[in-house]
Amino acid sequence: MTEHSPAPAAINPRAEPWFRNLLQQVPANLQLYMIIDGAQDERIVQALHATANLHCCLYTEDAIEPELEAVAPHLVKLRHWDDFTELCLREGARHHWFILFASAAEHLVQLRQHFKHFAVVTTAEGKDFLFRYYDPRVLPSFIAACTAAERDALFKAVQHFYIPAVQADGSIGLAQWSRQGPPQLLPSPRTEPADVQGSWAAGHTAHSLQSV
Predict the structure, then answer these.
(1) Engineered SS bond to 36: which of 98, 103, 131, 166, CB 3.0-4.6 Å?
(2) How many CB atoms lie within 10 A of CB 210?
(3) Overall pTM surpassing 0.90 (yes/no)
């Protein structure tokens, strides 16, 4: 599998406190990951090429054509703050670019193998369709509709999913979804850049916490 990790890009610190707070929410024995949809914005793949965070295509371990890479979903192991991370926090949530999750898996290939089981759904008529479960507008409803067995399968390699959510005061928290029960709202950082708060609030409401 092709995993990319070039030299770090120049750092823009505007949203860094939010990112550092996010890392603190993740248990120490777990890794923070992202699934990001390259089709949402042409800048995503460009930023991935420059990030210091390990990443790979979600669908295949083989090298793919640039045209396909640009619209494919990608797995990212979030360990570094750089321009890619800043772009995601500043603009990505407003446009539903990604979901976040915590996992004990150390390698991207383990997670790619896990998530490929959810990439295709079959209708009652026997037709197969790609399932964009990694869309933050889709995942909460999907988890809520899962049977206990389906939810166990989804969380086999995932401890928690984190989905951005706006709190009553307008600050940004994370809706933490786990194997059992309804989502829990994690606190947002005390210091939150206005541009991040405004853009995230524009794309999400507290209603997302009422999916179960």
Answers:
(1) 98
(2) 11
(3) no
